[in-house]
Design a protein that fits this description.
Layout: E1 2-6, H1 11-22, E2 26-31, E3 46-49, H2 57-64, E4 69-72, H3 86-108, E5 112-118, H4 119-126, H5 132-135, H6 137-153, E6 158-164, E7 166-168, E8 170-171, E9 175-176, H7 179-187, E10 190-194, E11 197-202, H8 203-216, E12 220-224, E13 228-231, H9 232-243, E14 248-252, H10 254-268, H11 279-286, E15 289-290, H12 295-301
Parallel strand pairs: 1-2, 1-4, 2-3, 4-5, 5-6, 6-12, 7-11, 10-14, 11-15
Antiparallel strand pairs: 8-9, 11-13
Helix pairs in contact: 1-8, 2-3, 3-6, 7-9, 8-12, 10-11
C-alpha cells in the first residue's frame, strides 16, 4: 500500500513510519521544516516538508495521488493554547483540516483514513457522568473531528479513530512527554500525586496499532488504544525506579485538588490565552480511575 502520513516526522510519526516500512508499505512522511536528522526515518521514505494547511487543493490531490491510506497525525492537543473562545482555535486545528481533506481524498481515490485522536473521546463514552466533551474544548474538538470524518467519508471510505491515552517512550533526539514528572522526581523527596488513574500505552505500540489500522480497518471505527491501566502513583513509582531514586508519594485528595483548580479557573477568565482543559473538570478526572478495556483494540489491531 501507499500510505501518506501528515505528522510523519513527529514523535508518533517516527514509530508509525518505521513499522509501516517494516511491513513493506510505501510511505510518504509529511511534516513541518526543518528536516529530521539523517537516519531518523528509513531511507526509502519520501519526505515532504510542508504545512498541509498552506497547500492548494491541487497540491493536496497530487500528494494523495495513488494513495491507499491517509494518516492524520496533525492538529492540536490539550496542551495548546488559543485566545478565547478556545473552541474556535481547536476547531481550526482539528476539525477544519478533516473537513477539507476527506473530499480531496474522495477525488484522489484514497479509500482509508486513520486519525490519531484522544482517549478522552473514549472516556466521554465510558464515563458520561463526568461530561468530559461538554466541559473541555479540546475534547469537544476531537469529538467533532470524528463526527465530521465519519459523515464526509460515507460508505465508500473506511475511517479509524485511534484514541490515544498517556504514552510512554521517546523518539531519537525528541525527548519524552514526561519531562515534568522526571524533573519533579529529581528535585522532590516527597511527591504529591493525583489519587486517580489512567490508561497507558507505549509509543511503539501506537506505531504497531497505526500500521495495523492502515491494513485492517473496514467501515467507521473507534479504537481505544490501551495496554495497561495504572494509578498515577504507580506511574510515578515506575519513573522513580528508572531514575534509581527513593521517593515517598502522597495522594492528593479531590478536595485539595479542587481548591487549586478553582483558583486556576478564576484566573483563566481574564487570561489572553487558554488551554483545552477545564481545570475543575481535570481535577475531577485525575481523582478518578479512568480505566478502559484494552482487549477490543488489541484483538482488532494485534498490537
Amino acid at each position: 500500500m501507499k500510505v501518506v502520513m501528515i505528522g510523519g516526522t513527529g514523535y508518533l510519526g517516527y514509530f508509525s513510519v518505521w513499522d509501516l516500512v517494516k511491513r513493506g508499505h510505501q510511505v510518504v512522511a509529511m511534516g513541518l521544516p526543518p528536516a529530521p536528522e539523517p537516519g531518523y526515518l528509513p531511507d526509502q521514505v519520501e519526505l515532504v516538508l510542508a504545512d498541509v494547511a498552506t497547500l492548494g487543493d491541487d497540491e493536496v490531490r497530487q500528494l494523495l495521488q495513488g494513495c491507499d491510506v491517509l494518516i492524520f497525525g496533525g492538529g492540536a492537543d490539550g496542551r495548546n493554547t488559543f485566545a478565547p473562545p478556545v473552541i474556535e482555535g481547536y476547531r481550526q486545528a482539528n476539525v477544519e483540516p478533516i473537513q477539507r481533506l476527506v473530499p480531496l481524498m474522495h477525488q484522489a481515490g484514497c479509500q482509508r483514513l486513520v486519525i490519531l485522536g484522544s482517549y478522552y473521546t473514549a472516556l466521554d463514552r465510558t464515563f458520561p457522568q463526568l461530561r468530559i466533551a461538554e466541559r473541555h474544548p479540546y475534547v469537544t474538538s476531537r469529538l467533532e473531528q470524528s463526527q465530521v470524518a465519519f459523515e464526509l467519508a460515507g460508505e465508500s471510505m473506511s475511517v479509524a479513530i485511534l484514541e490515544l491515552p498517556y504514552i510512554f517512550g521517546a523518539a531519537p533526539n525528541r525527548g519524552t512527554l514526561w519531562g515534568g514528572y522526571i524533573t519533579q522526581l529529581q528535585n522532590q523527596a516527597e511527591v504529591v500525586v493525583p489519587s486517580g488513574g489512567t490508561a497507558c500505552v507505549t509509543a511503539q505500540q501506537v506505531g504497531w496499532a497505526v500500521a495495523s489500522a492502515c491494513e485492517r480497518v473496514e467501515g467507521h471505527k473507534h479504537y481505544a488504544i490501551v495496554q495497561d491501566n495504572l494509578t498515577y502513583e504507580q506511574i510515578y513509582r515506575l519513573f522513580a525506579q528508572a531514575l534509581k531514586v527513593e521517593r515517598s508519594f502522597q495522594p492528593q485528595s479531590l478536595e485539595t485538588a479542587l481548591i487549586k483548580a478553582r483558583k486556576q479557573a478564576e484566573a483563566l477568565k481574564t487570561a489572553p490565552q487558554c488551554g483545552g482543559y477545564d481545570p475543575i473538570g481535570m481535577a475531577e478526572m485525575q481523582a478518578t480511575q479512568l480505566f478502559l478495556d484494552p482487549m477490543p483494540a488489541i484483538e482488532a489491531l494485534d498490537y
